[in-house]
Each structure stands twice: as structure tokens, then as C-alpha cells.
Amino acid sequence: MKKLIFSLAALLPFIAPAAAKETLTIYTYESFTAEWGPGPKIKAAFEKTCDCDINWVALGDGVAVLNRLKLEGKDTKADVVLGLDTNITDEARALGLFGKHGVDVARAKVPGGWTDEEFLPFDYGHFAVIYDSEKIPNPPKSLDELVNGDPAQKIILEDPRTSTPGLGFLLWMKSIYGDKADAAWKKLRPRILTTAPGWSEAYALFTKGEAPMVFSYVTSPAYHIEVEKVTKYKAAEFSEGHYLQIEVAGLIEASKEHALAQKFLDFMLTADFQNEIPTNNWMMPAGETSVALPAAFNDLVKPAKTLLYSPAEVNKNRRAWIEEWQKAVNE
Amino acid sequence: MNNSLSSWQWSASAFIVGAVALGLVPLLWFAMNHGGGQDWHFDQSIFNVLLFTLKQAFFSTVISLALGLLTARALARREFFGKRLLLGLFAVPFALPAIVAVLGVSAVYGHNGWLGGIVNIYGLGGILLVHVFFNLPLAAKLFHETLTGIAPENFKLAEQLSFSDREIFRHVEWPHLRSALPSLFSLIFLLCAASFVVVLTLGGPAATTLEVAIYQALRMDFDVGRALALSILQIILCLILVVLSGRLVLQQQSPNQNTQVILRHDGGATLARLMDGLAIAIATAIVLPPLLVVVIAGAPNVVINETTFSALGFSLIIGSGATLLALALAWPLAQMQQAAAQSLALAGLIIPPAVMATGWFLAFKEFDTAFAVTLCAVIGLNGLMALPFSVAVLRSRYAQLGPSHHRLCEELGVLGWNRFWTIDLPFMLPAVRQAGLLAFVMSLGDLTAVTLLGSQGLMTLPALIHQQMGNYRSTAASGTALLLALSCYGLALVAQRSGRAR
């Protein structure tokens, strides 16, 4: 409501910008700054540590954030960019806009460790097939069992052209089957109920009971347990390992608020930031937390092996691999 | 042609040309400066994409129009309890975000649906079902508008000549319907051809459209050159369609001047009653159940708090602004016969909104942090996207005026604004109300403009639904969807009521 009134006022042409404090402009994705997302709490916590304001600029998702940077180039108004994932950091790096974050990389706690000096992780999540345990008593125990399983038991996937989890599943298939990925896709095809444009559409169809399996995150059951007290949704543990998504932030080198941006990235790996991640962003924290994870997180699948292509490999092959997928599922 | 109208036509055309240029020129400039277009070849896959696009759009359109026509005719010649409520309901699907409609249809016909998988909705069948759910009501509403615009004398005369139902259709109704048909065909065809979420969600990767290819080029590959090339391909295809359908438009005469209710006595035969009953039953069976799903799923979850209230507020602001813009542009364009004018009216439909929005963003880059600029851009894009529908409604009513009307006005010396206020507007009012309602409802449900141009703080009802669904909160989203549906239904009833009060 306040926002509405404020915005109506902003329609008046003459508004004097009241910029007494330093303002840190952070580009991020929309669900991060939603009222139930971590954004509002993190903003309040960070603003206590400095005489400054955080100005969130929320765009559709990580890819939309990257495209905004490509459009703006050197004129970007961002000081910090938060919410890219390692599938697109190579492209982001190539823009030449990002500077070194200056934070000790050893503080970043992600599977496989962290070495990147430009991008710093703030959370991560393993992808997983989520299933309704009331409908599937014996879930697949490996990606291979999923691919070769009963076609009557359907799975809802996301489109790798339009969705991050969709790309995640494609990379998972590729990392297991390599050159034989197209054959595996053809084998899997009868099990795919549909390929939704995004995670929201896929997950909504799944919870409406359209299919007993959906492609999502290992952490998904935690939401249902913690918020809805529903325990029937479970993640299937795959023996080949699980593909990983790491979400990162970086600072714009030419920013006028360079010092403040660096301060924010340092803050990002402290408990005040990381505490908000599990139950607001439903991902795993990438740094120390000062409160224990909620009980539901302890029972989550802990993948024995992590699968991840380097940002450079993804950037180099993505187009070709998507074309290969398109051919395999269309024939 | 009087001066104030021609200068109005001129300004409206200039506005649209300017808006399109503001979208395409910066993109072209960007593409030339940043390379891009690494992949210019249009391979076999693009051909398949086109073929599937044309196929699903054609069938969706033909089914929607056929059922819509039968329903409209049944509604026009019958009076029954709940008719107004049904007509009001017909405005709602248009405002629902695609995914809400998909979930509604899947809750009825899906594997876990009420009718437990009597049809397989994953594939062409499902795409057609959802497209008909969206467009049958639109067609029925517009045809109904046309039929109630026919002068009552025509029906009296037909009665005196003891015309059969078939003869009434052929000699009285069809000539009017035919003038509305081509533009309605192109509108629905273009809507279905550009459909995105429905086609991807139900059709899977095998079912893709040109719009998806453009989106992919712009979003994933950020290949502005390729996106532009594909857009131009789409624009050319659409223009061919427009020119072809434009050839079929005919001028009509003898309208219902005083908007009085027509008392019709035709359709008394048992077979006619049966057919009308069946048409209304089929239309209701397609439109009502998914809407019921929205109500049942949403009712326990409607939350009125700061967030939903401000989202409703923004939706209404954007809706009002876009409606005024669409009407101001549609009025002069509806009175122009040239194919160029018709193509201009369709700009918002044939140029992919993602392309326009990206171009506008580049053009306004310097001001993008100003909230007012964002809001105006969202209103502008929504207005342009609603424009084709407003023009179609106004044009079909205007065609009923006929040339004698213009001659009479000139002979009497009623010109300029005087004519606008005293003659044209009162005559056109029912159509203006319909065109306005359509534009309003469409903008209310829009997700495209607000996602592409919006920034933090601009949260409309559809954007809120999208945000809630993106974070496991599909129960909350169902409440928001009901709020959206109810606002549309309310608007539709108000528009009808104000229509009757005159």
C-alpha cells in the first residue's frame, strides 16, 4: 500500500531525489526480494551495519539479470549483481564489467570448494527428481533407472531453453551419458508427461497430481514439511551423483560504491545473511550460519557425489547440447 | 472527412509508428554494434516450427469461431435466466494468465482431474482445448455484439416476409457477421500463433512456435540479430494474413441506431431450440469448469493484505491507462479502411512484445530507474497489445453506420467535435464500452509487459501470481487468481449494467 501511494506520487514529474545516504543498487531475481524471500530481511540486517540503503532491482530470473547487464553494458546502474548461477558466470565474466570480490574464498562452503575471485557463492542446491511417495513406493535409485523405467509413471521436466532447472537436467543427462545422451533422451521420452517452460508451471502441475515425479531441488521436500506439514513429497537419491546449481554474486568494477559493494559481498558470507537462506530461499547456505538448520533439512538427501560442468564448458557447449536434445526428443 | 478526425487519425498513426520505431531501431543499432546474428541460417527446424504454429493456430481459430458464432446466435435470439451473467463470465478467461487456465483445464481433464483423463490434454488436443477456452468467449462476445447491433426493422421485415431461420441467417445475420469475421479470424489466429506458455506446457518440446524461437534467441542466446530476423519473418507472415483477410471486409448498412433491445421471434422450431440449447451448453461446458476450478481452489485462499491490495491497485491503474490509450488510438483507426491502417492497429500483436520491450528499454535506458517511466512504458505496451481488439470491436460497429450516415452529417453540417459528441459517440457507445472492457480485461491479465519492463515495486496481480508460484506458494497464487477473475467479472457486469442504463 505504501508502495502504491509512493508510486502514485512518483508519477508527479517534480520529485527531488533525497539521496543523503549512500545507496547500494543490487540487481537480483524476483523471488529473492519477494516479501517471503530473503531480500527484505537481508536488507534490514545489512543496513544496520552501515549508514546506507539497499536498492533492489528485481528482474525475472538470473538469465534476465545477465541480459540486463548485456543491454546496459558499461552504463549499468548496478553496484552488485546477485543471483547468477555458474552456468552463466562465464558469459557474465566475458562482459568485462566485474571486479575482484576480495573475500577469502575459503569462507565459501560449497561442494567441491571455491576458487573464483570474481564471483562469490551465496547458496547452492543439488537438483533432484521429487516424487510423491504415496504414488511411487519404489522410486528410481539412479538416473539410469529413471531413463529405463516404466513409461506409465510420468515425470514433468522443464525446458532447457527457457528454464534453469531445465538446463540443469540436460547437463545432468550429458554428464552421465556423454556421447550417448541422445539415445538416453529417446529412451526417456515416453516417460516425460510434458516439458514446461519454467519450474513454476512444472511444479504446479506436479502438486496438482498430474504426474508422480517432477524435476526440482533436493531441498523441495523441506518446504512441504516446514511450511505445509506435508511429508509425502520426497527427493529420489541417484547413485551416479546429483547435478549442482551454485548461485553467485559479483561486484561491478566501475561502481561508484565499490567499497560498499565489497562490504556487502563480505557480509554475504556472514551468518546474518546466510541464516535467511534455508527457510526463505529454500536453498543450502554457502557460508556459516549461527542458527541450526530446521529439522526438515537434516533428513534431506545428501548426494554422495556432486556433478558439475565448469562455467566455461557450459558456455562452450550449451547451444550444441540443446540442439542435440531438441533433435532427440522431436524425432 | 473532417479535419479533427483526420488530424486524430494522423496522430494515432504517428504514435504507433513512433512506438514501433522506438522498439526496433535501438535493437537494430544494438545488433550492428554488438555483432550477434552468429546463426543466421534458418534450418529445417524453423520450417517445422512454422508448420506446427500454423496448424495449431488454424484449428484453434476455426473451432473458436464456429462455436463462438453458434453461441452468439443462440444468445442473441434467446432470453433466459442467467444470460447476462454468462455474458459477463465470457470476459473472464481473457484476463487469466495462461498458466492459470492450463491448471484449470488440467484440474478438469487432466490425469488427476474431475473427468479423470477422458481426453489426453498433453499434446495438440490440450493446446486446442485451452485456446478454445480463451477464444470461444471472445468470439461469442464480439459476434453477439454484432448481432445485437443489427437494426430491429430487419427482423420485423424478415418476420413479415415469413423468412425461415435459415433465410434470416443468410439475408439478415450473415452479412453483418461476415464483416466481423475476417478481423476476428486474424485476431484469434495471431493470438494462438503467438501463444507461448500454453503451447510449451501442454505440447512439450516437439510443439514449439515462432514466438518460442524468438524468445530463445533473445533470452538464452541473447542474439539480438537473430531475434530481429525471426521477428521480421513473423511480421511478414502476419501482414500477408492481414492483407488477405482485409480483402474480405465489406461495408454494411442498416444498424440498430438507438441501441434498443431487439425482440426476435425467430428460432421457434424445435430443432432451432435444440441447436441453440446445445451451443450454449457446449460453450458453458468449455468455459465454466476451468473457471469453477479457479473459484474452488481460490476461495479459501483469498487474502486481502497490503501486497494483494497494492497489486490490485497497480493492475487497475495500468488497466485504466492502457484502456484509454487503446480507445484513443482505436477510434480513428477503426474508421480507416486502408490495409496500412489495419496493419498499424495490429502492431502490438504481430511484433513480439519481448522485442518491443527490449528496444524500448534500450531507448529509455537513461531513465529506467524512474518509476514513472516504467509505468508509462508498461501502460504503453499494454495499450498497443489491446489495440487490435478494440479496433475490431469499433470497426464492426462503425461498418454498420454506412455511407449514408456520413453524407447526412455533411449535408446537415454537423462536423468536427460537434459530430463526435452528438452523433458518432452515442451511436458507437455500446461498442466503445465493449472495446474498453476488452482492453481493460486484457491489460489486467497481462504478464508480458510487466515482466519485461517492470522493476521492483511494480507488482500487478498476474505478476504476484507468477511470483507466488515461483516459490512453492501455488495455494496463495490460487487466491490471487480468484481475486483477478473476480475483478474482471465485476468490470464486465458494470460494463453491461451501464449499457442497459442507457
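qc> Chain A touches chain B through 65 residues (CB under 8 Å).
qc> done
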